[in-house]
Design brief:
The protein is of the alpha/beta class and 193 residues long. It is built from five helices and ten strands. The protein has a domain at 1-21 and 48-161: Dihydrofolate Reductase, subunit A, CATH 3.40.430.10. Strands 5-4-3-6-1-7-10-9 form an eight-stranded mixed β-sheet. It has a two-stranded antiparallel ribbon with strand order 2-8. β9 (168-178) and β10 form a beta hairpin.
């Protein structure tokens, strides 16, 4: 049996995953709320294995690692950090400064294909944009969980989440509104054409 792989991503309405240093939005673009936190806690309370690319791992260590300001201030992030994690990288070496993390070197498509075959639990990646675009193109992403925050970041947005991705048809599997303003849409992607 093959493990399910979910690409989990936050976005502004105009498709950006983050904003530049001149944006004064604050975390979650300042739109977090109790329903979002409870939902994320439930998602990250389930048994699963996290998969990160090297760049996302480095960003998470900077933001969430030991000594980082407000590290672990959100319960769901603390839960994510406790999950077993694989970091796909040709530059990092073990041991990593992340609980229960290992490094898998090699081509990301090969690494994740092997993980999908061997993992007894579902796989999830939060962020890791270029890694997940490559995995989507290879047909390894089973679900895209897109959380859209009610903001447009036309002036401060950086990192378009799907820039350079292949063309996909999306089948809507789930949708929910959190805190009366934030949307989560879960899709099954299929390469178009």
């Amino acid at each position: 049996m093959t493990a399910t792989y979910t690409f989990d991503i936050f976005s502004s309405l105009d498709g950006f995953g983050s904003y530049n240093e001149h944006g004064d939005w604050g975390g979650y673009w300042g739109k977090q709320g109790p329903e979002l936190e409870a939902h994320r806690c439930a998602v990250y309370g389930a048994r699963q294995r996290m998969v990160f690319g090297a760049n996302t791992y480095r960003e998470f260590i900077e933001m969430l690692g030991p000594g980082a300001p407000d590290a672990g201030s959100d319960d769901w992030i603390a839960r994510m950090k406790r999950l077993p994690t694989t970091v796909v990288s040709s530059t990092l070496t073990a041991p990593l400064d992340w609980p229960d993390a290992d490094v898998a070197s090699g081509d990301a498509v090969d690494v994740v294909a092997r993980l999908k075959e061997e993992s007894p639990v579902p796989l999830r990646s939060h962020g890791s944009l270029s890694l997940n675009r490559a995995l989507m193109a290879a047909g390894l992403v089973d679900r895209v969980a897109l959380t859209i925050f009610p903001v447009i970041t036309g002036q401060t947005g950086t990192e378009p989440i799907l820039a350079g991705a292949a063309d996909f048809d999306l089948e809507l599997l789930e949708s929910r509104t959190l805190d009366g303003r934030t949307m989560e849409l879960v899709y099954r992607p299929t390469l178009h054409g």
